[in-house]
Amino acid sequence: MRDPSEAETDMSEADHLGTVAPRAAPPGQDNAWPVAMLTLRVNGQTHRLALDTRTTLLDMLRDHLGLTGAKTGCNQGACGACTVLADGKRINACLTLAVAAQGQDIITIEGLAKGDALHPMQQAFVDHDAFQCGYCTPGQIMSAIACIHEGHAGSAEEIREFMSGNLCRCGAYPNIVKAVQDVAGQGDMRFPGKGGV
Amino acid sequence: MNAIIGTPHPRLDGRAKVTGAARYALDNSRAGLQHAALVLSPIALGRVASINDAAVAGLPGVRLVMTHRNMPALRPDAAMQDGGHAHASFRPLEGDEIRYHGQPVAVVVADTREQAEHAAALLPVRYEARPGAVAHLPEDAPSEEEAGSLDVGDADAEWEASAVRVTADYEEPAQHHNPIELYGCIAEWDEQGGLEVHVPSQWAGGMRAGIATVFGLPEEKTRVISPYIGGAFGGKATVLATTLLTCAAAKLTGRPVMLQVSRQQAFPTTSFRPAARQHIRLGATAEGKLRALIYTSENQTCRFDDVSFPGGEILARLYDIPGMKMREGLVRTDVNAPGFMRAPAETPAVFAFESAIDELAVALKMDPVELRRRNEPARDPVKGLPWSSRSLLRCYERGAELFGWSGRDHAPRSMTKDGDLIGWGCATAVYPTFISTSSATLRLTSEGRAEVRCAAADIGTGTYTILAQIAADRLGLTPDKVTVRLGDSTLDPANVAGGSTTALASGNAVSKVAEQAREALFKALTEAEEGPFKGMSPASLSLSEGTVRAGNVTQSLAEAVSSLPRGKVEATDQWAHPEMPAKQSKMLWRAGSPQGGPDMESFTALAFGAQFVEVRINPRTRTIRVPRMVGVYAGGTILNPRTAHSQLMGGMVWGLSNALLEASEVDRNHAAFANADMAEYHIAVNADIGALDVEMLEERDDKIGPLGAKGLGEIGITGTAPALANAVFHATGIRVRKLPIRIEDILG
Ligand code: FES
Ligand code: FES
C-alpha cells in the first residue's frame, strides 16, 4: 500500500469515491473545452443550442431545456431514473452525450400526455399506486412503454426481468408490474416511436 | 357524511409525479446558477497539508475554490440526537483536520457542472495521514460506553432456572439509504441577506432552524423548500454538511449555487445505518414459556457524536419474559456520523431477536407460531401499562392462514419442490407508535375549497393525500377540493417526518383545524347580519357535499364563505396528545422535535405484524430466490389502504434487500466504504420480488389520539430479514446469523 500522504498528483485511492484522478492537463491543451452547436429534437420540438461537448443528454434536458422530468440517480447507467426514448428505444440519458443524441427523436416524460389526457401508462401508474416518492417514476414509465413495445411484457415474470434496469428504492415493484400488465392487456398502447410524439 | 377517511383514494400528487411536473430540489435550476463539485479526502485520518488552489482557479468558468482557508466562519449546531438539527457536530472545511475517509476538503464552484467537476478533479491536495483509522465494527469491539440498558426482574436467576436455552451472536453490516434522488441542494442568498435553500427534506422547519443557527440568520430570513422528496428513509432528516457547504459557497460567490452530490460521494458524506452486533441468551421452560432474555449489543458510531440506535427497549415489548437484562454499547470508529435509516433501532435488533426465537422453537421442536402464542403479554412487560391496542396474535393467525402455514413440516430440509429446497419462515414485525405533535392551518376559500398548510413532508408516504382526506371528511368535501401545501419552512410547524409519526400528528392537527374552521363558519353564518342562516343555532348547521345545510335551507360552501366580510374562514392550531407534557409540546414552536412513546403515562403503544416468507434454494448453486412473502399488520385506523399498502409493501421490499443484498463493505486498509455506487451496493430490483401479499387487519385504538392511526412507514422492514433467515434455516438446516445472507453462507 502506498503512503496516502503522497496523494498529491495521483489520488487513485480516491477513484472509488468518483473523483477522477487528478492529472495535469494534457500538454497543449488549455482546458477550454470545445463547445459544439447542437440540434436536438425533443418531444417533437427542435432545439438549437451551444453546449460544452461533455454535457450529457440528461444534463442537457434538465439544466438547459428545463425538462426536469428525467431524473438523475447515479450518472452511471445503474438506476434507470434518466430513461428516455431515442427513436423508440429506451436509453440511459446519463450515459449519452448530448452531441451523440443529435438526429434522433428523443421522447421524455413531458412528451407523453396529450394535453390533460395522460398516456395510458401514466394513468396505470396512478391507478396501481406504482410509485411512492415518484422519483424513479418518469424513468419507470418510459421504460415500461418500451418494455411493452419490445414485446417483453408477456408475463409478470418477463416484466420483472425487463423492468429490472429501473431501480425503485421505495419498493413499488409489484405495483409497477401490475401497471405494465394492465397497459399490455389494453392492446393498443400509444407508442411514441420514430417521428416523434 | 361520506366515508372518506379509510378509502383508497388515489394519490393527489399522482398526476404531478407521472407527468414529470413534480419539482424535486435539484429540478429548480435558475438564471445565473453556478455549480459546485466536492473534493473528498482519500485518507481517513490526518490533516490537509496544502491545497494548491491557484492551480485550478484560472481554469475556464471556475469562480471559487473553497477550502478551510476561506470558508466563512460558521456557528456551532449540535447533532439532532443532542437537540440540534445537524447531521453531525463535526463539520468539514472548518479546519484542516481529516476524521473520516471521503470527508470534503474543498468545494469548487464554476459556471457549469462540467467545469466544476473537471476542476475539482484536478485540484492538487497534499495530505498528512495518520495510521490506525478503523471504519468497520472490529471483531473485538470495546464497547464500554453505554447506549442503553434495561432490567426487568432477575434475568440471571431466570436464565439459570431455564430448562431450554439458546445462546447466539448476530451481526448486521453498515448500510446506506441510497434514495434514487441524489443528495444535494440549491442555495441562493438575496440582497437583503436572506437565504433560500432547495434541499430534499423530511423536516423543513428543523432544517431551517439548523441553517439559520449556523449562519447566524433570523429564521424568518431563512427558507427551506422541499415539496417533493425523492426517497428519504431517514437520511434527509438533518442538515448535512454538504448543505452547509453549498450555502457557504453561494455566500462567497454571491450567486445561486447547486451542488449535486454524486452517488459515489454520497457514501462518505451523508448518513448511513451503522453496523451492529448482538449477543443473545434466551431461556425458556420445556413447555416453551419464555423466562430469560439477556441481551448485549455493540453499536457502531463515530468519534464526535453519540449517535446510536439501541433496540432492546422495543424487543422487551414483544413477549412476556419475566427476566430481562439489556446492555447496549457504543463502538467508536473513524466514520462520518451514522443516522436514522428506516426502523433504525428495530431493523438489526429484530433480526437478531426473532432469529433467536426461531432457534428456540427449533430447540423446543415447536411450531414457531405456537411459541409466540404461548408468550403473549397481557400488559407492557417493562412498564406494566396496558397496551393501547395489540393484535399480534391475530396477525399471526391471519398470516398463517394466507400463507398456508399449516402445511409446513417443521423439520429442516424437509420440503422440496422441483428439486429445489423450500423453506418457510416467520417472524414478528414491530414498530413503536411514537406520538409526536404538529400544527396546521386550514382556510376555507370563497371558491368553496379548503387549503391546508403544514410544514410536514410527503416522502412518498401519501401525506398529501391523507391530509386532504381528513380535511375533506371533516368539511363534507371531496378530497380534490382540498389543496394541501407541505414541505416549506414558511408553513405551520410540524415535527420531523421520522419515526412513522406524521400520519397521526399532522393528521390530528388537520382534523382539529378543519373542525374549528367548520365551527367558525357556522358561527359566522348564524351571527351574520343577513343570509339564509341568520339567527339559527350554529349546532343546527351541517356541511356536506360542498353545501351548508340547516333543515331545508342550503347554500353552497363557496357562496357561504363569499358572503362573509373577510371572504374566508381560517383556523390555526396545534395537536398534541393530552399525555404529552405541555413543556414538551411547546418545543414544536422552537423547531424542536418533541415525541412521546412507546410508553406514555397511561398506556404503551406499538404496531405489530406477522411476516411469512418462502425461500427456494437451488441445492447445487445455493442461489436464494424468494417466490412469496406475506405480511399481515395491524396499525389502528388505516387512513388510506392504498398508500398504507404501498408503505408496508415498500418496507417488505426493503426487508428482502436488507436480508439478501445490502452491505456497505469496508476497505480496511483505507477505512473506506468500498462498494460506493449503485452498481456494487446492491438493492432489490424488480426481478428479486415475487408474490407479495400485504393485509391490514382492523384494529381500533382510541388511546393514541383521535384518529387512532399508528405509523406504518417502518414496520414493514422489521420482520422480513428474520422471517427470511428462518426460512433459509428451514430449507437448509444452516443458521445464518449475519446479514446479508449470501451464497457462501449456505454452502453447507
Ligand atoms: S442516472 Fe442514468 S442510469 Fe442512473
Ligand atoms: S417511487 Fe421512490 S424510487 Fe421509485
TrEMBL record, chain A:
Keywords from the UniProt entry: 2Fe-2S, Iron, Iron-sulfur, Metal-binding, Oxidoreductase
Superkingdom of origin: Bacteria
Acidic residues composition bias: residue spans: 1-12
Positions of region (Disordered): 1-29
Protein name in UniProt: Oxidoreductase
PROSITE patterns registered for this protein in UniProt: 2FE2S_FER_1, 2FE2S_FER_2
Sequence ranges assigned to domain 2Fe-2S ferredoxin-type in this UniProt record: 36-112
The UniProt record lists the keyword Iron: yes
Coiled coil: none
A Pfam short name: Fer2_2
InterPro entries (UniProt xref): 2Fe-2S-bd, 2Fe-2S-bd_dom_sf, 2Fe-2S_ferredoxin-like_sf, 2Fe-2S_ferredoxin-type, 2Fe2S_fd_BS, Aldehyde_Oxdr_Iron-Sulfur, Beta-grasp_dom_sf
GO MF terms held by the record: 2 iron, 2 sulfur cluster binding; metal ion binding; oxidoreductase activity, acting on the aldehyde or oxo group of donors
From TrEMBL, chain B:
Record carries keyword Oxidoreductase: yes
UniProt-listed Gene3D superfamilies: Aldehyde oxidase/xanthine dehydrogenase, a/b hammerhead, Aldehyde oxidase/xanthine dehydrogenase, molybdopterin binding domain
Keyword Cell cycle: no
Organism taxonomic ancestry: Bacteria, Pseudomonadati, Pseudomonadota, Alphaproteobacteria, Acetobacterales
Pfam families named in the record: Ald_Xan_dh_C, MoCoBD_1, MoCoBD_2
GO molecular function, a single term: iron ion binding
Keyword entries, A-Z: Molybdenum, Oxidoreductase
Highest taxon of source: Bacteria
Protein's recorded name: Xanthine dehydrogenase
Residue intervals of the Aldehyde oxidase/xanthine dehydrogenase a/b hammerhead domain: 19-131
